[in-house]
Description:
This protein is an alpha+beta fold.
Amino acid sequence: MLSKSHSLSRIILAIVLLLSITAATTTAAVHQTVQVQVNQTKPFPQTQYIPDHDFDSRHLALDIRFDWDKEQLIGRETLVFAPLVPNLRSISLDAANITATSVKLSSGTTLQFNGDAPKEKLNITLDRAYQPSDELTMVIDYHTNGPQDPKRTGLVGVGLRFIKPSSDDPKRPKQIWSQGESEYNHYWFPCYDHPNDFFTSEITATVDKHSETVTLSGDKAAVQKAADALVAAGYFGKSSDAGVKINADSGVSGKKVQTLKIEGVHLCCGKCVSSVDKAVKSVAGVKEHTAKKNADSFEVTGDFNDKDVIEALHNAGLNGKVAK
Length: 324
């Protein structure tokens, strides 16, 4: 009886051991499967930080023109900035595919500089140590180095993109697009190209005299503000968007006059004066005018309708209003 009981106990023990081994094996397999799944998970991207900067940009003005054949921008940048640290002796600007040819302070003092293409930097040595209470104005002459590498990222590339007629599309209008978002502006002008710096800006562009269209992009309020600025600068045109108005209050009466004084017309150069001369003299009854380069206003004399003079200027792409 004891022998049978002992044998039964040994059988039960063997079954328990077998179940334990099976369970352990199954658990190990589960753990192994989980471990494989963890190993196959993609690694997190490398952590990126907004870099520190030791100066505060306050205003940036660009005076630019273009070489369509070389797809280059030739520009002069005026940068107003202030140190954020004591004894600032140099600054480093982001600059890619750009060659600087001259760097000076607004006083005329020439500054030493060097470009670091691999790091996309323009390093500038100041003439002395400056303090946070100082404000400096720096003038940089530069040009871009032609078309960007098509492998560069960005919504439509980076920097400037020249759109030109081609054999496939000979009627394609000439356009230049700028792609600055998110950190691609340094491909067409030197700057601290990161979102933790805020400054005002302005652009003066010299374009082909045969160009007839300016494209404004942005939200409706920003585009309207830009259109108003063009009119205030002495230009006139037609809007392709009914929601954007060309607000040009000329102050004319629509009556015949013998003398009319006009102000606000863009007269920056001899070509502008020639355009005014051609437009004004096309009006019936006009005899003479006094328009000159850089003049704030000029007079038109004869026997003519004042509205006809303003309309002639508008047709020439220029704006003006009756001087008070």
